[in-house]
Design goal:
The chain has about 400 residues and is α/β, with parallel strands linked by helices. It folds into 2 domains: about 110 residues, Enolase-like, N-terminal domain (Enolase-like, domain 1, 2-Layer Sandwich); about 220 residues, TIM Barrel (Alpha-Beta Barrel), CATH 3.20.20. The protein is built from 14 helices and 15 strands. The strands form 4 sheets. It has an 8-stranded parallel sheet with strand order 4-5-6-7-8-9-10-11. Strands 1-2-3 form a 3-stranded antiparallel sheet. The chain has a two-stranded antiparallel sheet with strand order 12-15. Helix 1 packs across helix 13, helix 3 crosses helix 5 and helix 9 runs parallel beside helix 10.
Length: about 400
């Protein structure tokens, strides 16, 4: 397995840009804009000669979790967040940056980055490739801050077109999958309570594992429901033989996939697990951006794409296309987020194998209405942009 991966890496680095970028944007903004100008979709106006300029604004916002959220490495009751807005010629696009601890970004780093962004230099929002390439060039990291701009820009352009992004991408919303609902590591009593809350609303659960009570977590859930389960070890397992033994046990108890079983640095051990696992194994912490895919090819069955890690919808679309071209499975996930970022990620959901888009359901202070879950299935609203509507009037 390791030798095959090394052989792949030799050639993948030189072809990744052409394969991923070319296929991913073959039906993208340029074509959609061309069709819009031909009046095949709702008409719009771009002011290129008057005073209209894109205006970026933002403000910090703290997400309040409904329950204490525990994974293998930490617990928390809140998540820092920054809400973003881009205005242009009477249209408004919304975005956000969510920053769980492991991402290594803060409200201060995000707002500092956003202050550098000058959108006024671009004549209109449809210059998406130029705009987002410029935003990406401002720093090496800051992926959540970049995602906030990306999401707001996609929302803005989709609204100007009068079309949701799943339609601009040419996707069938009926093919959107069920979403998992996450149950964090907790006491048996709390796990039972959480399972009862969601057992009748979802068709698949996601369970955090990686500590010394993994079997207890699964057995407790099995007292309540026989729904399929996806597990996320969050790099919590350290011995590949014990990890594989656990995966085999999990497969016997209705688990259907495993996410990030071992630390991302233990690439060959993860590859060995993937080669011997009865279940598909997905990379999460081991994957952030498009350029990371060649190095993990062969070590995992698939990748989990998260907007906050990959800089947004533009790169998420490219990652999904490239992973598919290499025979890898695709999952779309999220952080703890409002319906803004979750609905943005959901635009991609019709082409994925698994979806974990419940971040908005885990908080008590959402600011938007957007993607909904109907009988466990992701349901995309037929609204333009990323499909969201602000709740109330307390937005920036």
């Amino acid at each position: 397995m390791a030798i095959k991966r090394r052989e792949f890496i030799k050639t993948a680095g030189s072809t990744i840009a052409g394969m991923a970028v070319g296929s991913a944007v073959s039906f993208g903004v340029a074509e959609a804009r061309k069709r819009a100008l031909g009046n095949t979709v709702q008409s719009y106006h771009v002011n290129t000669s008057g005073p209209a300029r894109m205006k970026l604004s933002f403000e910090p916002y703290e997400l309040q979790l409904r329950h204490t959220f525990t994974v293998a490495s930490y617990s928390r009751t809140t998540t820092p967040d920054v809400q973003v807005k881009i205005e242009y010629d009477g249209f408004t696009g919304y975005g956000e940056a969510s920053m769980p601890p492991y991402l290594g970004q803060t409200v201060e780093s995000v707002t500092s980055f956003l202050r550098k962004v000058d959108l006024g230099q671009f004549k209109d929002p449809f210059m998406m490739e130029d705009i987002l390439s410029y935003v990406d060039s401002l720093s090496e990291g800051d992926t959540a801050a970049k995602a906030a701009v990306d999401i707001a820009l996609h929302d803005l352009v989709g609204k100007m077109m009068g079309q949701p992004w799943f339609r601009i991408w040419g996707l069938d919303p009926a093919k959107a999958p069920d979403t998992t609902f996450t149950i964090g590591i907790d006491t048996p009593e709390v796990v039972r309570e959480k399972t009862r809350e969601c057992a009748g609303k979802f068709n698949i659960l996601k369970v955090k594992v990686g500590l010394d009570n993994d079997k207890e977590m699964i057995e407790t859930i099995r007292e309540i429901t026989d729904l399929p389960i996806a597990v996320d070890a969050n790099q919590g397992w350290k011995d590949k033989h014990k990890a594989l033994e656990m995966i085999n046990w999990l497969a016997e108890h209705g688990v259907v996939m495993v996410e990030q079983p071992m630390p991302k640095e233990m690439l060959d051990d993860n590859a060995w697990i993937t080669e011997n696992s009865p279940l598909p194994v997905f990379a999460d912490e081991a994957i952030q951006r498009l350029a990371d895919i060649p190095a993990i090819k062969g070590a995992y069955s698939g990748i989990n794409i998260k907007l906050m890690k990959c800089t947004g919808m533009r790169e998420a679309w490219r990652m999904a296309s490239y992973a598919r071209s290499e025979g890898m499975k695709v999952m779309v996930g999220c952080m703890t987020e409002t319906s803004c970022a979750v609905s943005a990620a959901a635009q991609l959901s019709p082409i994925v194998d698994f979806a974990d888009l419940d971040g908005n359901l885990l908080i008590s202070n959402d600011r938007f209405e957007g993607m909904t879950v109907v009988k466990g299935k992701i349901t995309l609203p037929d609204r333009p942009g990323i499909g969201i509507t602000p709740i109330g009037h307390n937005l920036i």
